[in-house]
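Morning. Coffee machine broken again, so started the prediction first thing and wrote up yesterday's gels while waiting. Chain of 1439 residues, entered below exactly as on the submission form.
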Amino acid sequence: MAPESMAPPPSRRWPLFLTLLTLIPQVVQAAVPSVDFARMGTVAVAGSFSGLGVFDSSRNITYNPSTATLLARNADGSLDVLGETSSGGAISAACTLNGKLYLAGLFSTVAGVPAQNIASYDPAAGTFSPLGGQNGGVNGQVAALYCDASGGTLWVGGQFKSPTTATGVANFGGAVALYHPSNDSWTPPPFDGLAGASAEVLSITPSTSGSSSLLFSGSFLTQFGTNITIAQNVSNPAVPSSPGATAFTSSLVPVSLANAAQIEADPSTTTTGFTSIASVLCPAGADGPGNSWRAQDGSASKIVIKPNTYITASGIRLGNTFLDGRGTQTFYFTAIPSNDVVPLTFVDPVTKQNFTCTDNCPLSNDSTILYQDFLFPSDLLITGFQITINSWYGASAGLHILQLLSNGAYASAVAAVNMPSCYAPAASQVGVSGQWSNVNVFTSIAATTQEVLSATVPVGTSSSAAPSVTWFPYVSAAGIYNVYLMVPGCVELQDCSKRTTVKTTLNPGGGLPLSMATVSEQVEQDTSQLIYSGPITPSAPNYNSTVVMTLADQPQGTGDGGNYDLIADRVMFQLISAGGSNSTSSSGAGAVAGSGSAGFGFFEWPSSASNMNATGVLPNTTETSLDGLATALSMNIGSAVATTAYTINAVVLYATNSVIFAGAFNLASVGAANVAAYSGGSIIKVGGSGLNGAVASMAPSSDSQTIYMGGAFTDTADATGGTRYRGVVEYSVNSSTWTALGGGVDGVVHSVSLSSTHAGNQVIVAGNFTRTFSSSSDSTGTSAEGFAVYDLGSNAWVSSGGFLVGKLTLAVAGNGNTTTEYLAGSVSASAQYGANGWAIVGSGTNGAPVVQPLSGATLGGTAATNPTTTSRRMKRHSMSSNFVAPEAKHMLKVSKRQTTTAATSSDLPTSPSAPAPAVLSVAYWTNSSNSNHEVVILAGNFSVPNTQGVGVALYDESSKTLTALNGNQVNGVVRQVLVSSNILYVGGDFSVSGLDGHGWAMYDLHAGQWVSDSGVGLSSTSGSNPVVQSITTSTGLPNTIFVAGTFTTAGTVACGAVCAWSTVTKSWSALGNGVNGQAASIDFAGSSDNMLVVGGALTLADGTTANVAMYSFPNSTWQALGAPPGPVTALAVNNNNQSSVFAAGSSPDGTASFLAHWNGQAWTAQSSSWEPTTSISQLKFVPLLDPQTSTGVIAGDRMLFISGAIDSGSQGAMSSALYDGTTFMPFLMTSNSDGSSGYMSGLFNSFGSSFSFSERKLLATGIVILISIAIATGIVFFLLLLGIIWTLCSKRDAGLANPNPDEDDEDESSLRHGRPSALLEHINAATRTTILGAGALGGVGVMAHHKEDSSQHDHDVWVRSETPSDPLGGAGAAAGEEDLGDVNRPTHARYSFAGGAEGELAVAAGQEVVVLDDRDQAWWYVRDPVSGKEGVVPAAYLY
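Came back before lunch.
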């Protein structure tokens, strides 16, 4: 588990939930009409993207990767964002109980709700809640949850002491707590808790479905007793008591600081008797002169203490001064040399509740509280510390007591090092026999040394005759202790060949027998060796214990030069539980039973057991058969028990009293690494010798005979350099064999689970990886950022449904009552659906677009590099409040629609980046040889997995397979494909080995081979390769294929930019006098498609520039259609009307993008707010399910579907939009694998243009009867009247769909009549709120009112799609601009800040900067006075 961060307090950022609220009010809502995809046949969208979804403003955001995001994964695989944690947060465990999700990890808020490391989520209400009341939770990191449905309770495990809001916190033993949803309360577990150095529970597993017992694993210690009686409550009476301490903390021996090399406080008072900070380290009397210290009046102060050696410390003890109403109010603790601000845990002296603080730790001014003890999250190895006092009572801060607490007791083998501790009768003592010499050695802290003793012993010397060291450490109170012998590494002393083993004898006191242990000193690095775990009762009056070390009875090693070296350093007594044994007896003595065994990392609690205290010595009557695993682990791990290096992360019960356990360990005596089994009272190897890396998670099948494991391994422990099982593997219990899941992943897996939506037939995997591999030999892989799904039926990685970019820590299934699964981790981007460059879309039950996840359709990422593309990244709304410099707070200016002037032709604009895998074109082939089965043909820039295929692939929906074309593969990028008469026409920027031309090829789908292009290939005289941008055909000219692009010759025919291929004669022909330049898009107009309309950057034969040109088949002539604003990348003819053409492109200088409409006389700009980065790749008319009112330009039964990379300015990035002639409506949005906005090449349907926009409607029965009567009675004039009326109506409808080009254009203001005049103001306010954060504008949901004459507003023609998250509507309350406050003032950086993100300024600790804007509580805008650079810096980093 990652340790709790000790960095300076992180800046606060607005969570997702609050950010969405700031976005909602400032939008104009409109329901997007439903596209009738079914009428178009099979419909696919394609492009360069890894994820896509229906446009939703709440999804068009930028994530904060420093937080943890919680997502729901629905039955179809789509993803919904639920909320995010505080900055620096993590979510590592979750389970469901009674319809609620419980999530836990390390955080202080989730979705803006204060909650300490654990919270609940109600899917029905969509709300998060703390556990145990306001700001409830536990005071440390949570790593494991178990939802007990039978008991209706939640078991919580991790590295914490107690809940934050529970009463009776002293009853919580730590690492485990029990939450009761029925009354929102916390209680200790029946066994109080689990103990050990930094005790942590990493998994909680029921032994059976009925939960007859619970299995706890992690990094903690257990102890079973020895059938003897020990004394109770033996402690040094000189230690004063205080309501600010506990029995545990008051038993910790203070570290002697009297001889510290540096003891100073600055600034201190000059008042006599209060100037010396040293006087409070161990005050000789009551609070007063000579025994107390004061800071300078009205000033903050820093206390720095640096001993002349390194120290293991567990906390700090502070006692306030109460004279003259002075005293310290708040402070924080900084460790030296790491300079980390350390979180502190303390007991409130009044409420007795546990709290955690970091930068404002409170010290009581109640004179009845002598001192308060503040504990570190875990023991610290330090060379000094600093206490910074930042607020005080009265005129100045002050202290009466300042003591650094050890983790129990200690003694050095060097007598001079043992200094008297506060309250101790005397210093710890040491005695030696034989010849010992002092040696200086370096410690694990750089540039620090310490003294140890060394003795040389001839090989063959008996233990009784060898030199010995006896320690008599001062032990303040009786309790349960772990006793360690500290052994310096032999590498530093350069005596590895002379090292051997030693014997220790410990007298625990209280009548307990002596405890002996054999310890190896043959260690290369400094090591803590556990020599005893159990009760210690010090002997009065000096309150000492005794440890003796000498040569082992049977020393290991051969020595060097006939001699051994013995090294004596220190003994350390680590307090586990205060007060001797933990018997339930109320008498002064208690019985402790059992075999005297110590355990590590595992504990079984039977539900039928009576209450007990697992933090102390457990009676042997409570020891189960499986508890023997803990004892066996302790014996096998040995010295590593003293550290957190070894952990048991997961346990699976596979048979009675038999478990598979996994984690991070190496059991050398067993020959098992990271995974093993315990059965029959012994640890046994599994699958050889285990795995070669740590196992983080296990997921068993329903019968527990198959187990799926995830972690940091790549193969078995026996395989050298193997990569068969990268990150994830399947283990069979029955055969003790491993099975690969494809080729694994390219990183570390943190969580594995069996999917609840696929009957346990899919493994869902979360972690820190970027790709999955199909096999161990697959070196390319497929993109999968942090989350992947492996299908056990097909034995392959499949589409996960949704799309994510991140580093996930959690993937869990529901509780069986829901198909929802939950994911969590650091997320950079997400989308509803994962799609590898293409997807099938359809119409849902409510008309909304539905994306169909495609199994087996994953394309590979290794293909050609597109030489004509450049990278691009489009802006998205911010998810967190990002401060922007005042000069950047400009409002978006939107140009009105206007008639354009003539523009000269230039090259086509650069296409958006289409990195592999990208699909740029889709075609459909009905395979007549296979029951008219439809095959989808994909083309673009990609590879076909498990084949040699590149650029073109065939997808069979029935078999869910991708296949490559036979023969040689394309070398380059394919941009267009078209199928006609079983021939696949392929165009782009590529070549095929064996074919003559470039950019153009034909492939016989029936024969499965390329068609020779000898003499018919394309070429270019410009020296560059020919490129085909468009291939199309017309129903009016069925035997002709029209090819457009950049070329000058087709075969032997001079045919520039546009050429016609005859499928009958297999030859090329030019169109009239032809054109030159670059053609990008083709459509048809006129009756029987007798007009060809081409868009690009063209020049007619007579030299006329024509970005849009039209060719007439009847008279074989070309003409320019006006002068659109620039080169055209896409066009579409409206209803075959040559006087209604839409074209999109970019200005000649690339500074503007456009969508324009040709009405037969002039071009009129349609887009009002597109950014220059916008690139349109396709325009296509699509039918609607429910016809709308016609706008006069586009008929009401259709809309223009716009594809590409659209940056709307006001609404951010999208990949497609609908346009009805007046209003743009965002439709689909896409994301790339790196989180940037994707690119959509177009929408491709199997019916081509042959579908009807209008639904056929039959006359009503009554009308038919009337007509029959009329005919029967011979009322011919009535029929004539009907004909006249019908003709008039038809002409009126035709006028709407085909406006008369001779009519004057309608004034644009009338076209916009009815739209709110303040629309732009609302959108701009939303932009300001998103960029600046609600905090900078005066609160959530508040819009800063920009006073401006409404007549000056340019109107935006965008409306936002109506979504379930848009319930408010309208603008929020107005708020004035806040005062800038005290700006242009100098300040300094307390910490270094890297400043890697856009807009951030890097600063070094101590550097001076000038504050320009400090209105945001989290981020200040500052200037470096030296370099002149400006940017934002976390406010907490400045002082």
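Residues 1276-1297 form the longest helix (22 residues). Going to sketch it on the whiteboard this afternoon.
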